[in-house]
Each structure stands twice: as structure tokens, then as C-alpha cells.
Amino acid sequence: MEKKKYQNKFDKLAAIIEKAESFLLVTHKTPDGDALGSTLALKIYLEGLGKKVSVFFTGKAEAHFRFLPECYIDLFRKENFLNDSYFKNRKFDLFILSDAPELKRTGLFDLKNRSWLDKKLVFLDHHTDKVKEGCLLEIASRKKAATCQIIYDFFQYKRISFGKNIATCLLTGLFTDTGGFLHANTTSRTMQMASDLMRRGASLSKIAKETFSNRGVNALNIWGRALERAKFNERNKIIFSYVTEKDLKECKASLEDLAGVTNVLGAAEESTYSLLLTEEGRDRIKGSLRSEEYKNCDVSEIAKLFGGGGHKLASGFELKGKIINKTGRPIVA
Ligand SMILES: [Mn+2]
Predict the structure, then answer these.
(1) Residues 174-231: pLDDT tens digits?
(2) What is the pLDDT of residue 78?
(3) Cα(106) to centroid of ligand 1, in Å?
(4) Count helices and strands in the chain by DSSP H and E runs
(5) How does 257-291 read in b/e, with b if 16+ C-beta sit within 10 Å?
(6) From CA 182, how far away is CA 177, in angstroms rounded?
(7) CA of 133 to the centre of ligand 1 (A)
């Protein structure tokens, strides 16, 4: 998106925020650092303007994000469906959906009647350049490393001052979505933004510790299983592994304990991309794909073959079924 168009959208965003009184902030299922960081930064900003703000998402957030400001325990309820009866007694002037390019990825998709939503919906996202859903405003750019960067650009352009709490939320999103400033989406611009956020009081070392290295023994055990099973396929140059429901039970681990495993699998130097399959209960398999810029592989194309999607270097898909078939042998080995 060219600069002028991007700025015009920020002007429009500021104008509609000014007019609205009550907000519902929504993000994608099982929110990650960028989803939570962008949503909570907006929450703090809007509440500072005296607005009424509610936050909602479906699925469980990774527990290690609890260090984030405003990340209250009730945000971690397992199922938070935004159903029609929820809206019967509540009125919101504006819905801001961050870090998700479509309603399908949020609880709002479960509403039976959604036509009224179009006139109140704002998308802020970096997974796409064009949001296909009906909405009031969309600010979407795949050039941005994180949705937190879009919000930061908005604050910069509108000369909105903010302090340590917002800076911590924004730096968390930037840090996690750039793989700790290691991925190819790390540019001089993202480093500049990080530097400014640190100047405002955000602690990079604390964020790094909370999001990357704090792990329980259960998590280490489940990582062990995934890494031990890693196999390399010469023909496709893929390194892959899997984790079953039984593994999770035996290690007393949860799906969020597996965050980061796919990146580590990619450390195998002969591989072009990595794949981790995990069983997600109720006959579902989740696939997560990763690659590196210099390996010249677009994993979103592979995800699309299985009905999924995502970024060039990080994508995912979901399949029906189980990894272990009736004979007790894994289907992927
Ligand atoms: Mn993101």
C-alpha cells in the first residue's frame, strides 16, 4: 500500500474511533503474541480516551502471555463464543479485529446474522493486502512484520503519545512475529520501532524470557518426542515430525507447549521447509509449516493444497483424521 493511501486510512480510523463510544476488540483463535499485543495496546489506548472497551477471543491463549499488561485471567477462558444471544443485551459502536484477515478465524464467525456487523467492523491485519469481507475500514499490508507495527505506524502518524504498557504490548507482537528478530521480516524499520519502544520503557529481555525461554518440564518432554521423531525426506527436502494426543497426555503437555517446535525442526541444514503435525482431539490434525527466506520456498502454497493458508515463511492447515491409523502405525512415517 502506498504511503498516502496508508495515511488516509489512519485519518479515517482516527475519525471513526472519535465518534464511537463502545468497542469490542476481537482477534484470531488461540491468539499469539501479535494478536494479544495488538489487541491489548488498542485496549489501553482506547480506555485512555475514555471509551468503553471489551476484549474477546476464542480458544486458549498461551499462558506465558499473562505477563502482558491488561492480560486478565478471564481472557484465558477456554471457549468464548460470541453468539447471537451475547449481542442481544449488548451494544457496541465499533468492532476492531486485529491480526486476522477474515471472520472465519474469530468467534464472530459463529454469529447467525452478521450483516449488521459490516458497517461497524474494522480490520487491522498483516496477513493480506486486501480483506475480502464486508467492513467499514480495512488497513491490511503484508509488508508489515506484525499487526503491532500497523498500530505503531498509526500512533506515529497521528502523533499519539504512549508509555510503557502500550510499548510492552507492541514490542511483544513485533518480537514474536519476527521470531525474536531472526526472521526475514526483520528490517531496519522494525529495529527502529523496537528501539523506540524500548526507549518508552518496554523491556526486550523480559519479553524474550517470557515468550521464548520460560518452559515447564512438560513442555521439554513433548519437545523431546517431536524432535526425536524428526525425519528428513530427501525428495521433497522436508523435515517433519508429529505429536499425537497420546503423547500430549503422557507428557501432561498442551498444544501451546509445542509453540516453536516447527522452527527448531527447520534447523536441519539439508531441509527446505519443516512440518509438524499435531492431533487436536475430535479427529483433527493441525499442520504447521515453516521455512526461511534464503531457502526460497513459499510454504503458504503447500498449506493451500490442504485448504489452509498463511505467510510465505509460516503457514498452517487443518485436516480431519488421526495421525496414528488403526494398525497403530503413524500415517506420515
Ligand atoms: Mn501477526
Answers:
(1) 999 998 998 888 999 999 999 999 999 999 999 999 987 767 899 999 999 999 999 9
(2) 47
(3) 14
(4) 11, 11
(5) bbbbbbbbbbeeeebbbbbbbbbeeeeebbbbbbb
(6) 10
(7) 18
Predicted confidence at residue 328, as pLDDT, reads 63
Q: How far away, in angstroms, is 177 Cα from ligand 1 center?
A: 6
pLDDT at residue 332 greater than cutoff 70 = no
C-alpha 199 – ligand 1 centre gap (Å): 23
The H or E element containing residue 249 is helix 245-251
Using the mean position of ligand 1's atoms as its centre, give its distance from the Cα of residue 31 in Å: 9
Q: What are the residue ranges spanned by the domains of the chain?
A: 3-211, 217-320
Separation of CA 126 and ligand 1 centre (Å): 6
CA of residue 28 to ligand 1 center, whole Å = 10
The CATH classification of domain 3-211, taken from the options 3.90.1150.10, 1.10.8.100, 3.40.1830.10, 3.90.1640.10 = 3.90.1640.10
CB 272 within 8 A of CB 237: yes
Each residue of 49-72: pLDDT tens digit?
999 998 887 777 777 788 998 886
Rg for the chain (alpha carbons), in Å? 20
Domains 3-211 and 217-320 share a fold: no
Q: What's the pLDDT score for residue 75?
A: 61
Lowest mean pLDDT among 16-20, 282-286, 321-325: 321-325
CA of 329 to the centre of ligand 1 (A): 36
Task: Tell me the residues surrounding ligand 1 (ion) with CB < 5 Å.
Answer: 34, 99, 146, 177
- Mention the CATH class of domain 217-320: alpha beta
C-alpha 94 to ligand 1 mean position (Å): 21
Residue pointed to by grid coordinates 479427529: 283
